[in-house]
Design a protein that fits this description.
The protein has 6 helices and 14 strands. It is α+β, with helices and mostly antiparallel strands and 195 residues long. InterPro entries: DUF2944.
Length: 195
């Protein structure tokens, strides 16, 4: 977290939080949701300002309830999640090594891989609790060239490294948030009195 954010929190500790205004979509784009977007259930406008994106990425965290937020100075801006709290891109280096990078630009080292019932691919890491990230849909083809799937397509092996293969595990999309302990919609939780 940025020092300027820590200083603002110390100076103004009781600023009300906000919900519904910021979305992380399933492609890793941060989106600003004005009142009209919220009223219509629209994703909102992509944020393109590089400095603002960097500020959001550096100050992105979760609370004890599994709600993800962006700490904007003294104000906590809870994030609506298009799917998971993290979105990863899969790249192949010039030496053929695969690399996963999350939406903040940080490396993501997978410990497990899942295929959901809609065909989405998810990775979790070895942190405690584990982070879970959906694979950007543009990278599904690269993923498939490094995976061996069974006939039903819900299990198999992902060949991450020459010495490390990960078993593909099936998961229901509706169970991902509960399994990994995150809240996809803090705005809904607030309406239900859980924030």
């Amino acid at each position: 977290m940025d020092d300027i954010v820590k200083q603002a929190l110390a100076r103004w500790p009781n600023v009300p939080h906000c919900t519904g205004w910021l979305l992380l979509d399933a492609r890793g784009q941060w989106r600003m949701r004005d009142e009209a977007a919220q009223a219509h259930g629209a994703p909102g406008d992509p944020i393109r300002h590089a400095a603002l994106l960097g500020f959001i990425n550096r100050n992105y965290a979760s609370d004890e309830k599994g709600q993800w937020f962006f700490q904007n100075g003294p104000q906590r801006v809870y994030v609506e999640l298009g799917y998971t709290p993290w979105v990863v891109r899969l790249h192949c280096n010039t030496d053929g090594t695969l690399v996963l990078t999350d939406q903040t630009g940080s490396a993501f080292e997978p410990a497990a891989v899942f295929i959901d019932d809609t065909g989405g691919v998810l990775f979790s890491d070895a942190s405690e609790p584990p982070r879970v990230a959906v694979l950007h849909d543009h990278d599904l083809e690269l993923f498939s060239t490094h995976a061996t799937l069974t006939d039903e397509g819900a299990s198999g092996t992902f060949h991450w490294r020459a010495d490390k293969a990960l078993t593909l595990q099936p998961i229901c999309r509706d169970e991902v948030a509960a399994k990994f302990g995150f809240v996809a919609s803090p705005a809904d939780a607030e309406k239900q009195g859980r924030i």
